Amino acid sequence: MNKFIEKLRAAKDWRERLKLAENKTPGTPFDEIFTQTEFALEMLAQNRTPGDPATWLAKDILHSLGEALARVISRGDSTALNDMAAALDIWKRHKPEPDKALMVLFGLTGMFSRGWKERWVTLDQKIGKVIRRGLPHSVREKVAMRDIKANLLRFNPKMSEKEWEASRRKILRYAKEFGIELDQAGGRPAKKLRRNRGRKVS
């Protein structure tokens, strides 16, 4: 877990944090190469027509990969080949374990990326021109806990209040860690799960 948090802290933006939370890949230096290779082979396996743009893209990816590999062989860089082989073993053994609570948190954070208020414009739908610049008062400025809960329910429609409470507490911890402002309206746990801290124990 500590390594995971360190990776989240080292991430440049919400996109990288979202990718880490999704856990689709093991995080080797060759993840992108392996991902693109699998994508290209899947496209070709669909037996698309030769002129299909997806076919051209797949062949271009494999051509670039072959050219890069040829350069490594030409240099006699056996270290790079050994590193790739070791990474491939890790890649094949990797079983994704997505953290859905953090996926939702970081995904929604993308709606409020740096400078979003300054970039906000209102368009006249009829003429397609900007009629107002700046943020209207009706637009929320924080990630809403009720939206987080709604998205988690899409992953797990049978999510219990206990499960939600555990996710909510985790989300609050990570939001504090990464300076994410939350609107907690609609995200409080059911009354029966709340602790009355002021109640005296007899």
Walk me through this protein's architecture.
It is a single chain. The chain is 56% helix and 6% strand. By secondary structure, it is mainly alpha-helical. The protein has two domains: 25-93, no CATH class; 100-193, no CATH class. The strands form two sheets. The chain has a two-stranded antiparallel ribbon. It has a two-stranded parallel ribbon with strand order 3-4.
Task: State the assembly state of the protein chains.
Answer: single chain
Task: Report the major sheet.
Answer: 2 strands, antiparallel
Poorly predicted regions are 190-202
Count of helical stretches: 9
- Order of strands, main sheet, comes to 1-2
Taking all Cα atoms into account, the compactness measure Rg is 23 Å
Q: CA-to-CA gap between the ends? A: 39 Å
Class from helix and strand fractions: mainly alpha
- Can you tell me the overall shape? extended
Number of domains: 2
Mean pLDDT: 81
What is the H/E order? HHHHHHHEEEHHE
- Name the helicity range: 55-70%
β content, as a range?
Answer: 5-15%
- Counted beta strands: 4
